[in-house]
Design goal:
The complex is a heterodimer of chains A (about 700) and B (about 300).
Chain A: E1 18-31, E2 34-47, E3 51-55, H1 62-69, E4 78-87, E5 90-91, H2 97-103, E6 108-111, H3 125-137, H4 141-154, H5 160-163, H6 173-185, E7 191-195, H7 203-220, E8 223-228, H8 231-237, E9 240-245, E10 248-254, H9 255-260, H10 265-273, H11 313-317, E11 323-326, E12 329-331, E13 363-378, E14 383-399, E15 403-407, H12 414-421, E16 429-434, E17 437-438, H13 444-453, E18 454-457, H14 471-481, H15 490-500, H16 517-530, E19 535-539, H17 547-564, E20 567-572, H18 575-581, E21 584-589, E22 592-598, H19 599-604, H20 609-617, E23 667-669, E24 674-675, E25 699-701
Parallel strand pairs in A: 3-8, 3-9, 6-7, 7-8, 15-20, 15-21, 18-19, 19-20
Antiparallel strand pairs in A: 1-2, 1-4, 4-5, 9-10, 10-12, 11-12, 13-14, 13-16, 16-17, 21-22, 22-24, 23-24, 23-25
Helix pairs in contact in A: 3-4, 4-6, 6-7, 14-15, 14-16, 15-16, 16-17
Chain B: H1 3-8, H2 10-17, H3 24-32, H4 36-53, H5 55-58, H6 94-130, H7 132-147, H8 150-160, H9 165-174, H10 177-191, H11 195-203, H12 207-243, H13 255-269, H14 272-300
The chains are: A alpha/beta (about 700), B mainly alpha (about 300).
């Protein structure tokens, strides 16, 4: 092993197959009195035709490193202060702004996370697509339209000729991302930078887009830099990976090597904190402690040392260089200094199995045939012209002390269902009973004692806390409202609650903006548990958080459940997170529950084709654990005018005669597994395609 | 609490505890201070407040004391020692009248804006939060008021009620609430969908409380800007009214009614000082309020170039 300091990755001889070589790149942001070192000396190269993954948590500098390659850093406050970028023999940092314009969108192009905001809403897709073609390729109008249509066809947009005349808002998120990809590839760029291209999309759409990008990459041989926080996506898409932390590359390796033989404690932590399908039920996640350092005030020594379980004095004093491990792998950790322990130091903690407390199986919340419609009004007189059928007849019981996972893609009504259950939205019909009492139509005054007992935790830790109130006031509010504390002792009680969620009393007189995302989510949870409720609707509580923080919050929620005997509805779109927390799982599609089963049964024996495709669409790190992917076609139909019969029939790979005519009834197996699908209904199953019936289930029609 | 989550926060806690708590207001103040023109203007306005408050002690002469020796044959006196800004046609000291007039201008500016803010905020908040027909009703009322020529409305009102400074201020306030209401309504339309509003409902907070205690503080930014920019408008409105003879009645001095005789005196006696100084006072004050308003807006807007 040799210490090659910062120069390791660019050691290939000149004239090699490297398309891009970045050496010691530093991009800083200067704001009053402080310097944020977003990218602080990174070096790497991308070969022709290679897909380089860049992973890291938010604030690790992965996006800034991508933008720096295009010189798209806003200046001021940002500035590339040092380093070199050599792209295809040209020195990017020496280029003038006008030379850069001929590179951007032409030789290097970029796809962003949010397909809605990256397209201009006032121009048609076609107008936006021909612009780079005419600008960079000097095509005539007719040629460029032809090329645009060809590109749309290539990315799988149906009837591309017509789509060129459409405006961005007329297309779904998945379609818009396809258009972005088509635009990015239309000038045959040598390098494509994709910055979290699938993060804003649903899993089934993500699967479509990833498949498309993989195919296109194989076909066109474009080099790609794929920036993401999702290790599963990296494993499926990339050839080589940079793991970034605090503006540095901490580990670099071939993708297979990285996952088989990770060498940096941060990489170990990232791999260990992920919930996985193969974990035993009730396994406790192993989070990375703490949160990422402040980039304006970095600690001395190794930037990961404060969170690293392996750190010793040297780590806190001296920053490690990149040590070469062999096989093209480098790692920025003192463990790999010659004479040190290297990877042997790694301790993989056995995941602790949470002792499931004896659950009092009585139902706490009973929901019967619940419907929530939002009227659509049009015209001068605001006449009702239809309904958004957000929740359309769901039955669900939540037992005391249990967690019911509620999953589905965006727009399926899962959040509305959760909010309706605690009467934040008024139901259109059906009943909600809480602890045996019907609360469906209770007026707000009589609802108040129930408000204390049912609470909600939100997805977005930024908009869920009032920025003008101190944390103490936010947490104290429910106590004061429900008379659980007086003005004189509310402070003490708030301190107890803060400790309980892993914060301390010094935090009480601070404002929300002073906290990190994970800490804010703790504050949100503190507010929810303050009045000692027994039921909490957790609406995507971890999906806005980084993976390492996600594990902390999940563990916290599970601890609280155990201590306080809480029941949760855990709404999520991430099936592996739901796997880690739920006792039972319900799948919603277009306002209806299509499947409901115990955790283990749900993942081992999913019955509904929709569930099967959702489970198969989750990107998996370990290639040997990958299942055959069922990629759903198209998008979720509109809940204003849902398809007749089975709502899923428009996308279902197994549909047969009754599916578009008869609405499937809810069936139940003898072990309590419920599914609403004709494939399993004895009445229709004779004509059913045989494939899914491989494991026959003993079905009993659910008794009404 | 398990060992895992306890440990998890140690690093966080020490990091957050290192800095002093900074409230949103403190952050705004720090940003405001970097806007130089606004700071200069604010200093100017503070001086003006002091002058207005202590006017009787500061003014060299009684503002209503006529001195016919000084203004012989109705000829306004030139600026001279003892009367640094000259006098009017009745021999009243311009500087003293300006100093006393500042009380009227500032009083009208603040009271009128205060009235406009209170009415506008309440109606805007209710309209934005409640929505439906309440919103429709309030906003159509605002549209109707906006469609009415303001000067005509003011003059009509002031024919009926006594023209004291406070009445004039209130009347100006009554016709100035619509813009505030629109601003507040627009803020509330987005604020009511914020999750912390929903969280408050989930806790059992009453709608009035949510409106005025949870959401209103978050809508105050644009309101404060509107207020600072509303003050000069009110000052101008008072000046216009007084100039036209519908405002503050002589002998009480206001910057507006000082301008009224200035017009003919400037024509007949070349008494430029009678027009210049009150005009300058109005212009500088209005400008200063506008700069301060801009400064506050930039300080409150996280997207402004300052940060």
């Amino acid at each position: 092993m040799t210490d090659l300091a910062e120069r390791v990755p660019t050691s290939t001889e000149p004239g090699s197959e490297d398309l891009l070589r970045v050496d010691n790149l530093k991009t800083y942001f200067f704001s009053e009195g402080s310097t944020v070192r977003a990218v602080d000396g990174i070096s790497y190269s991308v070969k022709r035709g290679e897909v380089l993954g860049v992973v890291g948590e938010s604030g690790s500098g992965k996006s800034v490193s991508g933008l720096s390659l295009m010189k798209l850093i806003d200046s001021p406050p940002g500035k590339i202060v040092d380093g070199s970028i050599e792209f295809d023999g040209q020195d990017i940092l020496r280029m003038s702004e006008s030379e850069m314009r001929s590179i951007r969108g032409n030789q290097i192009s970029m796809i962003f996370q949010e397909p809605l905001t990256s397209l201009n809403p006032v121009y048609t897709i076609g107008n936006q697509m021909i612009e780079p073609l005419r600008l960079h390729q000097g095509m005539s109008s007719a040629q460029s339209w032809e090329r645009a249509e060809e590109m749309l066809r290539l990315v799988g947009v149906p009837s591309p000729g017509e789509r060129l005349k459409a405006y961005p808002h007329q297309m779904s998120g998945g379609m818009r991302q396809r258009v972005m990809i088509a635009m990015a590839l239309s000038c045959n760029p040598k390098l494509l930078i994709a910055d979290e291209p699938t993060t804003a999309l649903d899993v089934s759409i993500q699967a479509q887009i990833l498949e498309l990008m993989r195919e296109l990459q194989n076909e066109l041989g474009t080099s790609m830099i794929f920036i993401t926080h999702d290790l599963g996506v990296v494993s499926e898409m990339c050839d080589r990976v940079n793991v970034m932390y605090a503006g540095r590359i901490v580990e670099q390796a071939d993708v297979k090597r990285l996952f088989d033989h990770p060498t940096h404690p941060y990489t170990w932590g990232l791999l260990d904190c992920l919930p996985r399908f193969e974990d035993a039920l009730g396994s406790r996640l192993t989070p990375i402690v703490g949160s990422p350092p402040n980039l304006a005030n970095l600690p001395q020594g190794c930037k990961f040392a404060t969170r690293c379980p392996y750190a010793w004095e040297k780590c806190h004093q001296e920053e490690p260089p990149l040590f070469e491990i062999g096989h093209g792998q480098v790692s920025r950790c003192w463990l790999h200094e010659p004479d040190n322990k290297g990877v042997d130091a790694r301790v993989i903690l056995e995941r602790e199995i949470q002792t499931t407390v004896e659950k009092d199986k009585g139902p706490l919340v009973e929901v019967r045939d619940l419907r929530t419609y939002f009227p659509i009004k049009r015209g001068l007189l605001q006449r009702k012209v239809g309904d958004v059928q957000a929740v359309d007849g769901i039955d669900l019981d939540i037992l005391r002390g249990e967690t019911v996972g509620l999953v589905g893609e965006s727009g399926c009504g899962k959040s509305t269902a959760g909010r309706t259950m605690i009467r934040l939205i008024d139901p259109t019909s059906g009943t909600i009973s809480y602890d045996g009492q019907d609360i469906t139509t209770l007026p707000e005054k009589q609802l108040r004692p129930f408000r204390r007992r049912m609470q909600i935790v939100f997805q977005d830790p930024f908009s869920s806390l009032n920025p003008r109130r101190t944390v103490g006031a936010i947490i104290g509010q429910p106590l004061l409202i429900h008379g659980l504390a007086t003005r004189s002792n509310v402070g003490e009680k708030v301190n107890v609650i803060l400790e309980r969620v892993g914060l301390n009393q010094h935090h009480a007189n601070r404002y929300p903006h002073e906290f990190s995302g994970g800490q804010r989510q703790r504050i949100g949870i503190a507010r929810a548990i303050a009045a000692e409720p027994d039921f909490i609707v957790a609406d995507e509580p971890v999906s806005a958080l980084d993976v390492s923080i996600q594990a902390q919050i999940i563990n916290l929620m599970q601890d609280l459940q155990e201590e306080l005997g809480l029941s949760y509805i855990f709404i999520a779109h991430d099936l592996s997170v739901v796997r880690a927390v739920s006792d039972r799982i319900a799948v919603m599609y277009l306002g209806k529950i299509v499947e409901l089963a115990e955790n283990l049964e749900f993942y081992e024996n999913p019955l509904h084709p929709y569930t099967q495709s959702l489970i198969s669409a989750v990107p998996v790190i370990d290639p040997s654990k990958r299942k055959e992917r069922i990629v759903l076609q198209g998008d979720v139909p509109s809940p204003i005018n849902p398809p007749p019969g089975c709502r899923f029939h428009t996308r279902c790979p197994f549909r047969f005669e009754p599916c578009d005519k008869v609405e499937p009834r809810m069936l139940q197996t003898d072990n309590g597994h419920r599914v609403a699908c004709h494939l399993y209904d004895p009445e229709y199953s004779e004509g059913a395609p045989g494939r899914v019936m491989a494991q026959p289930v003993n079905l009993v029609a659910k008794t009404e | 609490m398990s060992a895992g989550t306890g440990l998890a926060e140690q690093a966080d806690v020490s990091q957050a505890a290192a800095e002093a708590p900074r409230s949103p207001a403190a952050v705004t103040w720090r940003r405001f201070r970097r806007h130089r023109l606004a700071v200069v203007s604010a200093t100017f306005l503070c001086t003006l407040f002091v002058i207005a408050i202590f006017a009787p002690w500061i003014a060299p002469h009684d503002p209503n004391q006529q001195d016919l020796q000084l203004a012989q044959f109705g000829q306004p006196a030139n600026p001279q020692a003892g009367h640094w800004l000259g006098s009017d046609q009745l021999g009243r000291d311009t500087l003293s009248r300006l100093i006393h007039g500042s009380r009227i201008s500032l009083l009208v500016g603040f009271v009128a804006t205060g009235v406009a803010i209170v009415i506008g905020t309440c109606l805007g908040a209710v309209a934005g939060y409640t929505g439906r027909w309440v919103d429709m009703l309030i906003m159509r009322l605002a549209d109707m008021m906006l469609a009415f020529p303001p000067l005509l409305f003011l003059m009509a009102m002031l024919v009926v009620i006594p023209r004291s400074a406070i009445n004039i201020a209130i009347v100006i306030g009554i016709i100035g609430w619509m813009n505030v209401a629109r601003l507040v309504r627009a803020e509330f339309l987005t604020l009511r969908t914020r999750e912390y509003a929903e969280a408050a409902r989930a806790i059992g907070v009453s709608p009035t409380s949510i409106m005025f205690r949870e959401l209103l503080p978050n809508a105050m930014g644009p309101v404060i800007v509107a207020a600072t920019l509303g003050i000069p408008t009110a000052i101008l409105a008072e000046s216009t009214l007084s100039f036209l003879g519908f405002g503050i009645q002589p002998p009480l001095a206001s910057w507006g009614n000082m301008l009224e005789p200035a017009w003919s005196q400037m024509r007949d006696h070349n008494a430029w000082w009678m027009g210049l100084f009150p005009g300058l006072a109005i212009a500088l004050t209005v400008l200063a309020f506008n700069f301060v308003g801009d400064g506050i807006r930039d300080a409150l807007d996280p997207r402004s170039r300052l940060d």
